Fold:
Amino acid sequence: MSDPLVARMRAFGTTIFAEMSALALRTGSINLGQGFPDTDGPAALLERAVEAIRGGANQYPPGPGVPDLRQAVSEHRKEHYGLHYDPDGEILVTVGATEAVAASILALCEPGDEVIAFEPYYDSYAASVALAGAVLRPVTLRPAGGRFTFDPAELRAAVGPRTRAILVNSPHNPTGTVFTREELETIAGLCAEHGLTAITDEVYEHLTFDGAPHIPLATLPGMRERTVMISSAGKTFSVTGWKTGWICAPEPFVRAVQTVKQFLTFTASAPWQLAVAYGLRHELGWVSSLRDDLQAKRDRLMSGLSAAGFDVYRPAGTYFVQADIRPLGFTDGLALTRELPSLAGVVAIPTQVFYAHPERGRHFVRFAFCKKDEVIDEAVTRLRKLA
Structure:
C-alpha cells in the first residue's frame, strides 16, 4: 500500500521526543532527553484543579478560554511587562503553546508564504509551517562568546518578497539563549521595515538564570501591534501535562487564530484553566524558587558533563544544556544518542534534528536538567564511562 500521508508531512514521521522516550523506557535508561520535570508543581495549584473538577467544571469552557484565566493573563502581562491586553478580545486560551504556534501559522500564512525561524528550532515549528503549505526560512544560531546568537546580516538576507512572519523563541529551546535587547531590536527593525508579523514563543519566560532578563518582543516600540505573543503554564508551573497555553495579540490576530483553533480543538481543560488563573495570581513566588533551583541543577549538570569530557555551553534560560561531543571522539549526535543507552544508560536528544541544515548541529547533544539532583548525579556518573 502506498503511503497515505500527505506529501508535505512525510519528512516528519515520529518525533525525536517519542523515539528517545520510548528508548529510555525500553532500556531502563535515565531520560535526560524530553523536557519534563520529575516533580510536581505547587501543591495549592494542583489542589485548585482538583477542586474545580469536584466543583463541576467538567464541560466545555468558552471557546476563547475561561474568563478568569483570560483576566489573570491580562493582569500578568500588565504587571510584568507593562503590556495591556483586553481579556475580552485580545487573549485566547489554547491547548498548550504547540497549538498556539500551529494555529497562528495556519491562520496567518498562505501557501507559498515564507516564515523565518532560528535554527535549531523546536520541531513543531517546521511541521506547522509545512501544514500551512508555507516555506520555512532558517537562520542559524551559532556559538559566539559562550552563547548561541545570529548574524544580523544573515537574518536580513533571509527576508524576501514572500516573507510573512518570523518565529522568535526566547528563552530559546534548544540552545538556552535568551535574546538580548540589541538582538530583539534587530528583529523588530526588520519586522517594521518589511511589514512582518512576529510570532513569539515565550514558554520559558520565567525560567532565566544569572539575572538574564526576558524581554518580550512586543514591548519594543511599534511591536505590540504586529506580535502574536505565546506562553503557557506547563514550564512555568511544572505541569507540562496540562497543556494550557495562551496567545496575547491585537484583536484582528486573535480573531484570525481563533477561527482556525476552533476547528482544531475548539476548547479544552476547564479545570486546568481555573487552576492556572490561580497560579498566575498566587504562585509566582514558587516559580522564583523553581528558577533558583533550576539554576543550581543547570550548574550541577554542566559540571558533571564537563567532568565526563564534553564541551558545554552555559544556557541563560530553559531546561537544557548543549554539549559538544567532539572532545569525546564522537561526531554524529544522532548516532551517539541511539547508542548512549547501551554505552552509558542515559538518553539525550541529538540537536541536529532541530536544524534544516543538520550538518550544522551534528556535533551537539541536548541534555535536560529539570530532574531531581540524584537523577542528574547518577546520569553524569554513567556518562563518565564515555571518557
Q: What stands out?
A: The chain is about 40% helix and 15% strand. Residues 60 and 268 are 7 Å apart (CA to CA). The chain has a mean pLDDT of 96.
